Amino acid sequence: MSRLTGWWSRRGSAAKVELYTRWSFHFFTVIEIGSIALVPLSEAGDGLTARPLGLPLGLALALFVCAHAVLTAVLSSRALDWALDRRDRPVRLATALVVLTAGGALTVIALRATGVLTDPAVGTAVVTGIVVFSLGGLVLCVRRPRRMLYVVPAVALATGGAIAALGLHPAEGLGSAIGILLGGYGLAAACGFSGWLMKIVWELERSRDLKARLAVAEERLRFGRDLHDVMGRNLSVIALKSELAVQLARRERPEAVDQMIEVQRIARESQREVRDVVRGYREADLRVELEGARGVLGAAGIDCAIASPFSPSFGPAGPALPDEVQSALGWVVRETTTNVLRHGDARRCAISVREEEDEVLLTVENDGAGQPAGAGTRECSGLGSELGSDRGAGLGSDRGAGLGSGGGSGLAGLRERLAAVGGTLEAGPAGDGTFRVAARVPLPRTPGTSGAKVGR
């Protein structure tokens, strides 16, 4: 049972809606077989004593309805794939279903007219049933479902006319026409709405993924712009002075040494500026990350509640934390926010920051029962994975002063960052379908920070 529930919880919202829709159409197959295919067997039971053809006729009609139900289910499945742009429109299957339905309905009507099929209830049930279920499957193959508003009454009128034309009682034709009209409209509307809803949910899923990709591209452009602003002028000056030094060296002028010294100075200054850019890009600020988590989760339709003196709801004022503590906790907020978006199916997320016994406690809880960071990935790539890989890579190092190490992504990367400031990380289910991540970082007791309270 746990495997079944885990398999279901790991699927995204769009995949769940699609699976539910497909199984609903498969259940229509069971309904058609159970409610219509068994009706001719009642005629067969009477025919065992009345006519020799009673049993074969009843079995033949039952098998025909079963074959019709299976074909309708296959057509519905292929039509759903076509609606999601996974395959071509199943025109041949739709044509086969129309031919089978029309041929079967005319055959049953002819059997009633010739007296081979004596029970009018059996004929009406079979004809009405196969036509109604066919309309439910065919609506998925229509580019403009509104056309079914005209198709359903036309089919009902044609069926009733065929029954009357073959000399049967007008009441039988009227009953079949009314049944097809009501049942056809109802089933076509239900099937059409289900297919439309599934398509819309997948479009929302793709839009969400596209939004994350655009955010990654925007972040990359911003970082590239910062590097261009920092390095563009310096590289131009280095190229110019290097060329000047070459010309002076060819003339054996002593000024060439001065030019190369200047080039060396500019190169070292460029290293320092790049290091500052990368450090600002890689370090996470807790206040900024909390505001970003609220915005990103809110844009994804997830209700985000933040209880922290650093959140915007508490105003600009708040206690100061050491930079290394803020950076470590900021990375926890960033990574867990990413995992809420990528690995779970959350509707609510709660983030809190408070002080407990001389340490800062950051908790992130969501009701999506998602996977922890690093435990797996889905098909769509989220914003956090892209940023994590980009921000975790340094652009260079200088002798005696590196850009930092560690980093990584997922729980392992977070534990490394927290371990650097003496912190710990716990992650796991918290009951009631929630997943909880808790990060604890001890507060250094210095004269400047001993009186600070992070919040209760």
From TrEMBL:
Q: Where is the Histidine kinase/HSP90-like ATPase domain?
A: 326-444
Extent of Gly residues compositional bias: 391-408
Superkingdom in the source lineage: Bacteria
Pfam families recorded: HATPase_c, HisKA_3
Matching entries from PANTHER family are given as: NITRATE/NITRITE SENSOR PROTEIN NARX-RELATED, SENSOR HISTIDINE KINASE DESK
Q: Residue ranges of the Signal transduction histidine kinase subgroup 3 dimerisation and phosphoacceptor domain?
A: 219-286
> Where exactly are the transmembrane stretches of this chain?
20-41, 53-75, 96-115, 121-142, 149-168, 174-198
- Supply the SUPFAM superfamilies for this chain: ATPase domain of HSP90 chaperone/DNA topoisomerase II/histidine kinase
Q: Which GO molecular function annotation, any one, does this entry have?
A: phosphorelay sensor kinase activity
What does the UniProt keyword field contain? Answer: Kinase, Membrane, Transferase, Transmembrane, Transmembrane helix, Two-component regulatory system
Q: What InterPro entries does the annotation carry?
A: HATPase_C_sf, HATPase_dom, Sensor_HK_TwoCompSys, Sig_transdc_His_kin_sub3_dim/P
Annotated stretches, region: Disordered = 367-408, 424-456
Record-level GO cellular component terms: membrane
Protein name as catalogued: Sensor histidine kinase
